[in-house]
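The instructor's notes for this session suggest beginning with a concrete chain rather than abstract definitions. Hand out the sequence below and ask the class to guess, before any prediction is shown, which regions might be ordered.
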Amino acid sequence: MPNLTDLIAALTQATTQLKQAALTDDWALAERIQKRRAWLVTQIAANPALTLAQQQALQAVREQEAVIVARATTHQRALAHSLNGQPASAHSKTVLRMLQAYHPDPH
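After discussion, reveal the predicted structure:
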């Protein structure tokens, strides 16, 4: 099993990739990355003793996550606005994938 520092580095890298996917509206990729990140977060949470450097690295990840969530929320609102009064289309599938990427089914 990787050590905590390696897990945090992998989470940081995955979060950077997730941010890029969000900025390019690649929500299918974001969903795949989010699954990997969920596993990493679970592994990190199993190690409650964090050094100051590790805490700072996780804070940087949280700051990136805030940008990603803001981007996803803005995109979701824009899609919802464009879909008002229109029949279901490929756009609604995009919205669904985006929502699933940020709110994965816990089961």
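Then share the key points. The chain has a mean pLDDT of 83. Residues 80 and 87 are 12 Å apart (CA to CA).
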